């Protein structure tokens, strides 16, 4: 569920726009930001910061935002601390979808999640991770070819070669 929090926070952040630390040169029809940083709080008042090496937004439709090495840190000193990194990301504000790829990794107080790519649909509240998905929590591990998590129904479904391990200590 921590992955879902990250994706909700990132999608909400891009709805409002990133604030640039410095502007870089952009191609015609693009706005490019160097070292963008967005700080805020989620719906429960937990602080978060989203950064990237750079972000590029097309001014022509569909105005997608390309992210280079996005990083989210949420509730850093709190009980729900969370860090998510990926090599690349794309947010499509028209479809309200966030695509992350390139070794998506989430680490937090409740466990870890890794997948080659994830898509979060803001409208439906659904996260789909594909490739070799791995999750680890304090007493369990799950591997599968894909995972679908639904934030509205608070459910997670693994599929494709699912292997799980429960550690009873």
Tell me about this structure.
This protein has one helix spanning 2-16; strands at residues 22-23, 30-34, 37-41, 47-51, 54-58, 65-68, 71-74, 82-85, 88-92, 97-108, 111-121, 126-137, 140-150, 155-159, 163-166. The protein is mostly beta strands and 169 residues long. Strand 10 and strand 11 form a beta hairpin. It has a 15-stranded antiparallel sheet that branches. It has 1 helix and 15 strands.
Query: How would you sum up the global shape?
Result: globular
Report, as a whole number of angstroms, the end-to-end distance. 23 Å
Helix content: under 10%
Radius of gyration: 16 Å
Average per-residue pLDDT, rounded, comes to 79
Number of helices: 1
Question: What string gives the helices and strands in order?
Answer: HEEEEEEEEEEEEEEE
Put the structure in a nutshell:
By secondary structure, the chain is mainly beta.
């Amino acid at each position: 569920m921590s992955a879902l929090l990250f994706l909700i926070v990132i999608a909400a952040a891009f709805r409002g726009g990133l604030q640039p630390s410095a502007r870089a040169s952009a191609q015609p029809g693009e706005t490019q930001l160097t070292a963008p940083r967005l700080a805020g709080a989620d719906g429960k008042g937990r602080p978060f910061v989203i950064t990237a090496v750079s972000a590029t937004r097309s001014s022509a439709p569909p105005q997608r935002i390309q992210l280079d090495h996005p990083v989210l840190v949420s509730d850093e000193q709190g009980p729900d601390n969370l860090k998510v990194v990926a090599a690349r990301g794309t947010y499509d504000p028209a479809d309200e979808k966030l695509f992350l790829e390139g070794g998506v990794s989430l680490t937090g107080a409740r466990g870890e999640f890794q997948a080659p790519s994830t898509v979060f649909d803001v409208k439906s509240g659904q996260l789909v991770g594909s490739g070799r998905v791995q999750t680890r929590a304090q007493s369990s591990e799950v591997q599968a070819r894909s995972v679908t998590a639904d934030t509205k129904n608070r459910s997670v479904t693994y599929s494709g070669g699912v292997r799980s391990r429960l550690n009873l200590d």
